[in-house]
């Protein structure tokens, strides 16, 4: 398994991380023995980053991951979890952040996590579930820093959802060590300029900002919530498709556009759309580790096999750009 240096942290993370999220649902609703087998398999294959959150099954994902890590006791792995603050806690951010992390550590059976990510959207002025740039920099970061000084977390992270300008402003402040960033074949805007009138949120070459700031990148929505399978069907234990996720405003529109990328498979660049999507996410040098949601052990095996083939070649990336051109001007 290839390892990449993760920003300025000094950590070397596997290019394939293990996503314990709600979209795939495996670490929330999968069979416990199967969960243990797949995590053991992942560790044996060289996966060393495991990503969860209290929001995934109201703590179920953290508890299941913690149970397995306590049993397997693997060496040299990194664990990340997250906090999402409800609006009712905006007046007591420091206490709410500390309480959330304490709960996460208890469920995970750990004394500290390697990365603690803020999971709220970030906008210029805040409102609703979103935090403003000033709330993040003036309230959240000091709260995270206190917990770091107490030895309960190693690195500060953020999930880059919200308004692009606000997100880039926070990254540019160089207070976060990690950013979870949407990057997939339907929306590559964190890494390159989008054509005019392209139907997706424009993340404004966010990787330029992370690289300058020394922020490590965790690639999320690599399969666009499952749409880049090219199928609208969802596994029984999978969560509902998240909408919107930075590309189309509906899952069906994402699936439709994903199917229009099938020439990548027919022309031999990849064995499947999911393989192409997984390898695409690795193709950008700013990427540290990618998370691929899963509902079954086979989906982990598929992701592992794709990663072992390495990034897509330039010819495939050029073909992909050509296939996306007709999307411009379509409604999001």
From TrEMBL:
Domain NADP-dependent oxidoreductase: 16-323
InterPro entries: AKR2_Oxidoreductase, NAD(P)_OxRdtase_dom_sf, NADP_OxRdtase_dom
Pfam families from the UniProt entry: Aldo_ket_red
Name of the protein this chain belongs to: NADP-dependent oxidoreductase domain-containing protein
């Amino acid at each position: 398994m290839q390892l990449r240096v993760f920003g300025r942290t000094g950590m070397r993370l596997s290019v394939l991380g293990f996503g314990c999220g709600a979209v795939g649902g495996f670490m929330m609703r999968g069979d416990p023995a199967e969960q243990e087998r797949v995590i053991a398999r992942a560790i044996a294959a060289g996966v060393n980053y495991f990503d969860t959150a209290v929001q995934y099954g109201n703590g179920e994902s953290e508890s299941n991951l913690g149970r397995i890590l306590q049993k397997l006791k693997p060496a040299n792995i990194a664990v990340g979890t997250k906090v999402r603050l409800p609006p009712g806690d905006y007046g007591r951010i420091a206490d709410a952040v500390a309480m959330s992390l304490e709960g996460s550590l208890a469920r995970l059976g750990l004394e500290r996590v390697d990365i603690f990510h803020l999971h709220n959207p970030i906008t210029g002025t805040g409102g609703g579930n979103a935090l403003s740039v000033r709330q993040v920099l003036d309230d959240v970061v000091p709260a995270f820093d206190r917990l770091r000084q107490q030895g309960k977390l190693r690195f500060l992270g953020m999930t880059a959802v919200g308004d692009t300008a606000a997100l880039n402003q926070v990254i540019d402040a160089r207070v976060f060590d990690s950013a979870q960033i949407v990057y997939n074949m339907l929306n590559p805007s964190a890494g390159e300029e989008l054509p005019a009138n392209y139907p997706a949120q424009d993340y404004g070459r966010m990787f330029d900002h992370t690289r300058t700031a020394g922020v490590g990148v965790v690639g999320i929505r690599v399969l666009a919530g499952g749409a880049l399978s090219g199928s609208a069907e969802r596994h029984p234990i999978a969560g509902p498709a998240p909408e919107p996720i930075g590309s189309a405003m509906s899952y069906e529109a994402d699936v439709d556009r994903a199917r229009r990328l099938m020439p990548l498979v027919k022309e031999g660049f990849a064995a499947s759309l999911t393989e192409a999507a997984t390898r695409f996410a690795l193709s950008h040098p700013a990427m540290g580790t990618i998370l691929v949601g899963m509902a079954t052990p086979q989906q982990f095996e598929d992701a592992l096999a794709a990663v072992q083939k390495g990034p897509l070649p330039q010819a495939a990336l050029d073909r992909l750009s050509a296939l996306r051109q007709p999307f411009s001007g379509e409604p999001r």
